[in-house]
Amino acid sequence: MNSSTFSSSSMADQKRDQSIIDFKIPWALVITIATVAIVEWMAFRTDVLVDNDEIFLPSDRAPTLVESIVDAKLNVADEAGQGVDILILGDSSGLMGVDPAVLSERTGRSCYNLCTISLMGVQGHQAILNRYLETHATPSVIIYHFAPNDMRFTEQDLDQWKFLSQVERWLAYRQSSSGTDKDEPSRRDWTVLPSQKFRTEAQSWLSLESSRVRFMNQPRGKWPSHSKVVKELDRRRGFMEETSTFHWDSPRDLELVFSEHHKATLRQLMQHINDMGIRMYLVANPLPEMAHTTKTDQHFAAMLNSIEGLAHSFPNVSLPFPQPRYIENTRFATLNHLRPEAVMEHTTQIVDQIDFPR
């Protein structure tokens, strides 16, 4: 080895030793990384209560009218109360067709309208009823009101629309003591970092008025804001007036199919109410005269006969209107909804056909 080679090798070793000496551990960065790791670990281990209101009241927009109605009725069913003598259950034909104030005036009994929408099916109505019966005194009478044209919905239809699954998830979250259901995706599953599950809470802390509050008070065209709808439902004991208008120019055939899914779930509802010793009356919404065709009448009669056959198995269940009913087109706002001026007459007809327990 010559002197020049030895000299260059020695200089390289000296530079490497000097670089090791000069290297400093970036403690600030290390501490920051460690702190973030600890915070994320703690966030991962901490369950934030799932805000089940977001199921029907999303935080990024104003809820639809349907979402407002379903959320409002779910909250009524969930909150403990004294209960009523007469409970109206069913879809929107009952929501906008049976006035509790008229029922109470004619019978002298307390009444509440727990009707929602047909898009959750009979199964969804029973889920809400079950929660109501857990938090309220048992009613003497349940009126189940339905739109004949919507009994055609299948299990696949309800799965596609998701209202039934959303109702079941809302109830599961609320009934769970921890606020989450282990069988459902929690907020932890919806975030990249565990700490992101606190994002909604942090945003509400930092804003003077949360976006949700703004959305709740936002008007929705012909329909008022969510907050006003909820107040009106409370004032009217769960009843809502239909404000839409529609006119028919010619007769219309309706294929009133009674799906196998609705047969099965309606029978389950009958049995459940019958076994509790509650009187149940099944009321089909009348149809407009424009639908009074031979085909519609045959389908309507067949559906009512089928429902009456189911009811015969249960002594506490009956069908007060076993024959198809039709009324003037002008009494309807939509195919399934009566105009406000027709509601009193319809409700009175129900009262006249029901034998209330003494």
Describe this structure in words.
The protein has 358 residues and is an alpha/beta fold. 48% of the residues lie in helices and 7% in strands. The protein contains 14 helices and seven strands. The chain has helices at 3-22, 27-45, 65-78, 92-95, 100-107, 121-135, 155-161, 163-175, 199-206, 211-216, 226-235, 260-275, 294-311, 340-353; strands at 86-90, 111-113, 141-146, 279-284, 287-288, 317-318, 326-327. Strands 2-1-3-4-6 form a five-stranded parallel sheet, with helices on both faces. The chain has a two-stranded parallel ribbon with strand order 5-7. The chain is elongated and about 110 Å long. The termini are far apart. Residues 177-190 have low confidence and may be disordered.
Q: Which short descriptors sum up this protein?
A:
alpha/beta; five-stranded parallel β-sheet; 7% strand; 358 residues; 7 strands; two-stranded parallel ribbon
Number of helices, where a helix is a run of at least 4 consecutive DSSP H or I residues:
14
Mean pLDDT across every amino acid position: 86
Order of helices and strands: HHHEHHEHEHHHHHHEEHEEH
Rg from C-alpha positions?
Answer: 30 Å
Helix content: 40-55%
Tell me about the largest β-sheet: 5 strands, parallel
* Distance N to C terminus: 119 Å
Shape annotation: elongated
Number of strands: 7
Oligomerization: single chain
Summarize the structure.
The protein has helices at 3-22, 27-45, 65-78, 92-95, 100-107, 121-135, 155-161, 163-175, 199-206, 211-216, 226-235, 260-275, 294-311, 340-353, and strands spanning 86-90, 111-113, 141-146, 279-284, 287-288, 317-318, 326-327.
